[in-house]
Each structure stands twice: as C-alpha cells, then as structure tokens.
C-alpha cells in the first residue's frame, strides 16, 4: 500500500443505489438506515479526489472523511454479469415487469397467510402468473422473490463492488467501503439466501484480470539501460484474499473459486513445474449446525479445512452456536494472521456481514460484538495493520439499527475517528429507530459460547500447517 501518512478511504454510494437496495425484500429500508447514520456522524465527504488531496494538504487538522464515489454503471451491464452468471438467469434478473408479487419480508415467520411463500401467493393472486412460474427454476421465489426494481438493483450492485475494486487497482484509494454489496450466496444460475447477483465473484474476477502486479526488476532495468535494450515489463497475476466474516458460509463465492488442482509439498517434491497457486483464495469463518443455511454442503468445503487437503486455498472454519468475541480473537490470532502472512495478498475483499451480532433475528446463533477485543472494530484495526489494498462490503444483518451502528463504527475506525458505544446518535431522519438508548451501543450477548476450546486450539494448529504449506507453494511459484 502507499506510504502516505494516512490511508485514503472511499465510499461507494449514490441515491439510486440506496433506493434500490432499500427494496431488497430481506432488508427493506436497511440501506437508508446505514447510509443515513454514517452521513449523520459526518463521516462522508462529497468532493472529487483531486479536491480531497488539495484540501487535506491545506487543512491537516480537518476531520478525516471517506470520499463518496458513485457506482460506474459501465461495470454493471448485462455483459459484465455474463462474465459469471448464465444467460438465462441474467435474462430473468433483467426482465422488465409491470408488477411484482405482494411486497413482504422473506425473513419473517411463515406461520400465517400473511407470510405464505411468495411463489404460492403470486400464482394465486397476481395477474402475471406465468411470469413467476417461469422464474422459479432460478430460485426467484420463496426467500428470493422478484421485485419491481430488481433489474436496476442487479445492475447497480454489480457496478458498486466492481467500482470499488477498480479504485484499488488504479491506486485511487487504500480502503473502499461498499455496504450495499456482499451478496455471497448467489450462484451461477440461481438466487440463494436473499442474494440475487454475486457482485463479489464478479469483482474478484475484475481484480484477477485488471490487477496485475508489476515485478521489481532493478537488475533487468540496469541491463536494459547499459545495452540500450527495449524496456520489458514483467507482471504476475495478483494474489487476492476473499475473507468472509458473515455468520453464514460463503458458498456462492467459495464454490465459484474452488479448484481441484493438486498441490504437492514443494519441500519434498522434485517437480520442476509445480502447480501455480490460484489467483483467489477464499476463507470463510461461519456458524454451522443442522438445518442452518446453506444446508447440505455435500462437498465438505464448509467443514474445517484439513491441513492435508490437496487444495489448501479454499479455507473454512465452522463454529458452533453463540461464538463470542473472545473466540473470534483466538481464531484471528491463531488462524487468520498466519494465513494472511503466508499468502501475502495484493488485494483483500472483506465481507463484513453483521448477522453474527447478538440479537440478529435471522442469524439467531450469533454472539459477536462490535466493541472490545475480538469485536468487529478490533478485527478492522488488525486489517488496517496488514497494509493491503482492501474492499469492505456488507452482507447479512437483519437487526437494521444494529447493522447500521456496526457498519458506521467500522467506517469510523477506517477513518481513525473516535466513535464508541457511548457516542450519541445524531438527530437525523431515522433517529427514532435507535430507541431506547439512542447511542452507538450494540448490546453484547449473554449466551454461553458453545465452541469447545480444544476444537479452537486444534483449528489453530491445523491452520499453522496450512499456512506453512501455502508459503512453500507461493515461494516455489516465484522461483
């Protein structure tokens, strides 16, 4: 990352992006709450990049703010979506519709007629019956009902996270926030888990293609100068870490980048052409229990990664109910830090779903906190110390006021702004949503952490071995 005294922070937002994100059936109105609180806390700057640099130089004591960048809509076209998703599925997402099934919340209990599955309601009551019947093959029903602004939503969510990653590639920022992105469950040809478009996969593909790393070639440059040779620029593919802290397993992203390549141990193998590491490593820390979404992961990729795995680049740490911040701290220090050190990524895409916080009505098994050691802010401070170009996205989070608090706190942490649990919620349009404390506090949970300390200790040992293997594989590829 740049040697600038302070990191540059960008923030992906536009009014239309916020409006269509507010229409997401599982999170109706959440986007306005999140952006409204962050704006009320005076964390955003609406000036150009050149103006920001000039103003920062002229006013070094001025409070640091994140610079707003709107989504580049050229990165949200049908052609862009087709770089991963199937044509039939993209056609279904972008299909104009004059009406949608009755608006309802798919996260609400379905114990009455008001919460009947949307496919059934649409077929019984809506005039465009065939339209929704045809869409069921793409799982655009039940938890993922189509809605009127879906075409614009899919386009702008795609554009937002890809815009964020292109800012990193072009060295226009060091950290970029995209709270409306992070839809990690969407698959190649169907929706899943309240996710319609996999903006994460598409942005990771963009990073892979455009984020080439120029090699340090001092010796070659001297020879070119001495012998008057035509300059040559050597590049390599970037190493990218996709790191997912949502309560749910990152099935859509992890499956998209899983490779069945065999990686032998370079320290004992005589292979003169060792298998090169992939461009994208995926790493998911998530809750796992019978019946918890995503269900029936037959591949075993959501299980604890075996240190002897032939492919140590799809990493997973499943956790039991009510994982507390103390456990997250142990995992971070014993598992996450060794992996990041050995992989040494050029770019990081961090999915910060907040459904692992205590009191989330969908997550239910979460016991994480915002503040304190091992909390969300603590984790972000460790990410900052890595000094890597990083895109931070949203994801799950169904207690909307607490999600807004958490993501606002993370935004403030990236800006080195002093906001804590006692900070008062500023008066703004959504002030009443933060009753009864009207502070930034997200109450800690009091459920007993169900994770066996021996399991966590073993996971740390396993990941030390995995980190060592990754370091050897990366080193062998650079020889």
Mind explaining what this structure looks like?
The structure is a single chain. The protein has 479 residues and is of the alpha/beta class. It has one domain: Arginase, Chain A, CATH 3.40.800.20. 36% of the residues lie in helices and 10% in strands. The chain contains 15 helices and eleven strands. It has helices spanning 15-22, 30-40, 49-58, 78-81, 87-94, 118-125, 129-135, 150-169, 199-210, 218-226, 251-257, 325-343, 376-386, 400-414, 453-477; strands spanning 9-12, 44-45, 66-69, 175-178, 213-214, 235-236, 240-244, 280-287, 314-319, 347-351, 389-393. The strands form two sheets. The protein has a nine-stranded parallel beta sheet, with helices on one face. A two-stranded antiparallel ribbon has the order 5-6. Helix 2 (30-40) crosses helix 14 (400-414) and helix 6 (118-125) packs antiparallel against helix 7 (129-135). The radius of gyration is 23 Å and the shape is globular. Mean pLDDT is 88; it is low at 112-127.
């Amino acid at each position: 990352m740049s040697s600038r005294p302070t990191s540059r922070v960008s923030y992906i937002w536009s009014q239309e992006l916020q409006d269509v994100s507010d229409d997401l059936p599982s999170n109706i109105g959440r986007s306005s709450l999140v952006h409204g609180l962050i704006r009320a806390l005076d964390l955003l700057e609406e000036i150009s990049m050149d103006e920001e640099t000039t103003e920062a130089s002229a006013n070094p004591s001025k409070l640091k703010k994140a610079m707003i960048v709107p989504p580049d809509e050229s990165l949200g076209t049908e052609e862009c979506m087709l770089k991963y998703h199937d044509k039939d599925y993209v056609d279904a997402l972008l299909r104009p519709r004059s009406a949608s099934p009755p608006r309802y919340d798919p996260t609400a209990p379905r114990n009455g007629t008001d919460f009947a599955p949307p496919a059934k309601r649409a077929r019984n009551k809506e005039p465009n019956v065939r339209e929704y019947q045809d869409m069921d093959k793409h799982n655009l029903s039940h938890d993922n009902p189509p809605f009127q602004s879906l075409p614009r939503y899919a386009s702008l969510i795609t554009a937002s996270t890809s815009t964020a990653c292109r800012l990193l590639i072009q060295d226009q920022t060091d950290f970029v926030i995209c709270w409306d992105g992070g839809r990690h469950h969407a698959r190649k040809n169907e929706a899943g888990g309240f996710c319609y478009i996999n903006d994460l996969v598409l942005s990771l593909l963009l990073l892979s293609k455009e984020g080439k790393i120029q090699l340090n070639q001092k010796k070659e440059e001297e020879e070119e100068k001495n012998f008057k040779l035509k300059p040559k620029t050597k590049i390599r593919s970037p190493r990218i870490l996709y790191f997912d802290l949502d309560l749910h397993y990152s099935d859509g992203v992890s499956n998209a980048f899983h490779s069945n390549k065999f990686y032998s141990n370079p320290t004992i193998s005589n292979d003169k052409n060792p298998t090169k590491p992939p461009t994208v490593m995926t790493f998911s820390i998530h809750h796992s229990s019978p019946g918890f979404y995503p269900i029936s992961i037959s591949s075993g990729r959501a299980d604890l990664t075996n240190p002897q795995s032939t492919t140590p680049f799809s990493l997973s740490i499943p956790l039991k109910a009510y994982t507390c911040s103390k456990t997250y701290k142990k995992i971070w220090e014993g598992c996450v830090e060794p992996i990041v050190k050995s992989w040494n990524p050029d770019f990081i895409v961090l999915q910060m779903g907040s459904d692992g916080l205590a009191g989330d009505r969908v997550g239910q098994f979460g016991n994480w906190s915002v503040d304190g050691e091992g909390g969300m802010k603590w984790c972000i401070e460790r990410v900052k110390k890595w000094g890597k170009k990083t895109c931070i996205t949203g994801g799950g989070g169904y207690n909307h006021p607490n999600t807004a608090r958490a993501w606002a706190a993370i935004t403030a942490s990236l800006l080195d702004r002093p906001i804590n649990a006692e900070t008062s919620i500023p008066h703004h349009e959504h002030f009443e949503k933060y009753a009864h404390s009207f502070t930034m506090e997200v109450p800690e949970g009091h459920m007993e952490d169900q994770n066996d300390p021996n399991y966590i200790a073993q996971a740390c040992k396993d990941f030390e071995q995995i980190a060592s293997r990754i370091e050897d594989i990366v080193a062998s590829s650079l020889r």
